[in-house]
Design a protein that fits this description.
Blueprint: H1 5-14, H2 26-32, E1 38-42, H3 48-55, E2 60-65, H4 68-77, E3 82-85, E4 98-104, H5 113-126, E5 127-139, H6 144-157, E6 162-164, E7 170-172, H7 176-182, E8 187-197, E9 203-212
Length: 221
């Protein structure tokens, strides 16, 4: 999986003005993780979530993003965080480097099934056994506007729920059944949907998944 030139150009251009919207559950982080936990925000953008974790007392913070301009904005708020440009997999971190990995509105930017599967496999590599995945993203909508663009653009992109912004950037809303299949490598701890807003201010259906990497892998029978 690798970010395309068009994706990188979009986020480089948007870096100074982007306002991301999906929330995290601060109580979950306080309950599930120790202050010394090693946390990676994959696709951290301008560091919005990392800054919230910093405010909660987590100090061992890292982030990767395809946009150098986004990371420069993040460094202004988080000079001590380990922030690196990463435009594909594998990431520049060793196996089992983290106690938790966050994916916040990242899958929506990865429209292809195979690329999403490669990303999930990379997250498994980065997590220690028993480590936690915290994921927030967008589900399919049923309003007329979204149904029309899903139908019209399915022949173009090959997947129902993928659509393009005005500048051609493809994004994806997700079928819950696909999300559950994609995240099968993790022990599911929580899965819930909620009403959300996109970065463009449109109503959306968000979902939150929390899962655990198994302590041991199943053996072949």
């Amino acid at each position: 999986m690798r970010a395309t030139d068009a994706q990188i150009a979009h986020w480089e251009t948007a870096a100074n003005d982007a306002v991301f919207t999906l929330p995290i559950d601060a109580h979950w982080f306080r309950h599930q993780l120790e202050p010394g936990s090693r946390i990676l925000d994959y696709g951290c953008g301008y560091g919005r979530i990392l800054a919230q974790l910093d405010d909660l007392g987590f100090a061992k913070l890292a982030g990767v993003d395809a946009s150098a301009a986004m990371l420069e904005r993040a460094r202004q708020r988080l000079p001590a965080a380990d922030l690196r440009v990463c435009r594909g997999t594998p990431t520049p971190h060793a196996d089992a480097s983290f106690d938790a990995v966050l994916l916040i509105a990242v899958l929506t930017c990865v429209p292809a099934d195979a690329d999403q599967q490669a990303l999930v496999e990379e997250i498994r590599r980065l997590l220690r056994p028993g480590g936690l995945l915290y994921l927030c993203d967008f589900l399919l909508r049923s309003d007329d506007r979204n149904l029309q663009r899903y139908r019209e653009q399915e022949p173009v992109h090959g997947t129902y729920g993928v659509f393009a912004l005005d500048d051609g950037l493809p994004l994806r809303h997700h079928d819950p059944a696909w999300v559950r299949e994609l995240l099968r490598p993790f022990e599911s701890l929580e899965f819930e949907s909620f009403e959300a807003t996109t970065m463009l201010g449109n109503p959306a259906t968000g979902f939150r998944f929390a899962g655990r990497k198994p302590f041991s892998q199943p053996t072949a029978s």
